[in-house]
Design a protein that fits this description.
Strand content: 5-15%
Structural class: alpha/beta
CATH class of the largest domain: Alpha Beta
CATH superfamily of the largest domain: Nucleoside phosphorylase/phosphoribosyltransferase catalytic domain
Helix content: 40-55%
CATH topology of the largest domain: Pyrimidine Nucleoside Phosphorylase, Chain A, domain 2
Shape: globular
Order of helices and strands: HHHHHHEHEHEHHHEHEEEHHH
Number of helices: 15
CATH architecture of the largest domain: 3-Layer(aba) Sandwich
Length: about 325
């Protein structure tokens, strides 16, 4: 009996799925959509032992998640998700789920705060940096605002573990494994407000393509940014590649740069050594060295939300963005 027949005959048995995907790059086989749905459902329900869960996630990391496997995983996560708070119409969802050890700030989060202060409805998704232990990127970026600007979505951001409680059961094994698995990738696609366009970041082009196809198959709109360290932060020293998925199902790739909107931001603002200066820069007129970076991101987010037809049309006067009268 080959692995395909074994997985079908052993439906619901974790061992059958591990055997199918766990024979290395050359001998492993992709799961079908139905097999992936069943396997990930069993994983989230706790039907895998810790050893089986670790073997399964490691095998998928080596093999790489296929399109059908990603689609099956996302179907299971969506079916397991809880209700979310109601947000005003329009705007977008910024998914900042990441687990990078890099302790720099999120320019996209800063720009999102500025746009929320101007009335845009923005939902934010974040994840637990269980591998890196890096809460600093989020906490210190959001902390730059204090009470000066409106709080995102009238409260705390949606945490993936609160949206999908079953993921909490896998936190220990994921931390012990010590690598980013397909669950990290899938968390980036979570959008609790599907009527809004999703903005997310990823590091690898081939995964961006599969994620775009997943959004298309689910009838969702979004922008997948090949961003700074796998975040939605746009690269500022060169073009950023972005996969666009439109409500009607069309997919295209665009390249945008600061020069497209007439800006020349200093790429050093992304350096780890400069991050401690963000608070000081935010207090300067026009946000100091961060000003052009925030203008660039705000223009892109307005475009992602459908407020303007092209990123360059989303550029706001600095005084208007900063709220200075």
């Amino acid at each position: 009996m080959d692995e395909d027949e074994s997985a079908k005959s052993g439906a619901g048995d974790p061992v059958a799925y591990i055997r199918k995907v766990g024979r290395g790059r050359t001998l492993s086989r992709d799961m079908s959509l139905e097999e992936a749905r069943e396997a990930f459902s069993q994983l989230l329900k706790g039907r895998f032992t810790d050893a089986q869960a670790g073997a399964f996630l490691q095998a998928l990391r080596i093999k790489e998640l296929s399109q059908e496997e990603l689609d099956g995983l996302m179907q299971v996560l969506e079916e397991s998700s809880l209700k979310k708070p109601v947000l005003p119409h329009g705007g977008l969802v910024l998914n900042l789920a990441s687990d990078t050890a890099r302790k720099g700030g999120y320019a996209s989060l800063l720009a999102a705060n500025l746009l929320v202060n101007k009335g845009m409805s923005i939902g934010v998704v974040r994840s637990d940096p269980m591998l890196s232990g890096n809460e600093k990127s989020w906490d210190e970026t959001q902390g730059l605002f204090g009470t000066r600007y409106a709080v995102l979505q009238q409260g705390k951001p949606i945490h993936v573990h609160d949206l999908i409680p079953a993921l909490k059961n896998l936190r220990k094994i994921r931390k012990e494994l010590g690598f980013r698995s397909c669950l990290h990738t899938a968390e980036k696609l979570l959008n609790p407000w599907p009527e809004k366009s999703l903005v997310l970041g990823i590091s690898h082009r081939h995964y961006a393509e599969r994620m775009a196809e997943n959004l298309r198959r689910r009838g969702r709109a979004g922008k997948i940014v090949l961003g700074n360290h796998g975040t939605p932060d746009l690269v500022v020293h060169k073009e950023t590649e972005v996969w666009e998925v439109f409500p009607g199902g069309d997919v295209r790739t665009i390249h945008i740069s600061p020069q497209d909107v007439g800006l020349q931001p200093d790429p050093n603002v992304y350096s780890l050594g400069f991050f401690p200066n963000w608070k000081e820069e935010m207090a300067r007129d026009g946000f100091g060295a961060l000003g052009p970076v925030l203008l660039y991101h705000a223009a892109f987010l307005r475009y992602a939300a459908g407020e303007v037809a092209e990123p360059k049309e989303g550029l706001l006067p600095l005084l208007q963005l900063s709220g200075v009268s």
